[in-house]
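Technical annex, item 7. During the second reporting period the consortium partners agreed on a shared format for inverse folding records so that results from different sites could be compared directly. Each record opens with the tokenized structure and is followed by the designed sequence. A conforming record, contributed by the partner at site C, is shown below for reference.
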């Protein structure tokens, strides 16, 4: 089954984002933040740069950075911006791919079109709930 980048946008907007909001995240596009007074807890959905020929592959990245350290880091590394993007590694904070937290501890990429969108989104959200949120909580101060 063929898919396009627009299909990922639709999947995230219509199925994954509402479920993430139910779990306490805010955000849009492919970046979501779990609210916390002291830390940035940012989830990013990253589309593979090697998507070709009707195949869209994506993964989920997680970043936690203490807000005070992030602000101080901005003095040294001006490229940091206001908050982490979720899909980049920084000299401040902690980064993990969701797959590395799952039972197989491997980099995991989901492929659109391998299952119905509702099933795919449920699988992604389940992994975030079972492995991503506990990781966020363990790394937030």
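Designed sequence (site C submission):
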């Amino acid at each position: 089954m063929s898919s396009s980048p627009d299909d990922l946008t639709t999947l995230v907007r219509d199925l994954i984002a509402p479920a993430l909001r139910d779990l306490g995240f805010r955000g849009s596009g492919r970046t979501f933040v779990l609210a916390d007074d002291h830390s940035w807890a940012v989830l990013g959905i990253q589309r593979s740069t090697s998507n070709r020929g009707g195949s869209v592959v994506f993964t989920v990245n997680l970043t936690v950075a203490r807000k005070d350290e992030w602000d101080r880091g901005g003095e040294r590394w001006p490229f940091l911006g206001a908050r982490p993007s979720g899909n980049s590694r920084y000299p401040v904070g902690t980064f993990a791919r969701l797959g590395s937290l799952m039972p197989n501890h491997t980099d995991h990429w989901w492929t659109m079109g391998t299952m119905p969108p509702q099933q795919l989104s449920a699988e992604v959200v389940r992994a975030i709930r079972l492995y991503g949120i506990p990781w966020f909580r363990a790394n937030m101060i």
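The longest helix spans residues 117-139. The longest strand covers residues 57-66. All partners now use this format for quarterly exchanges.
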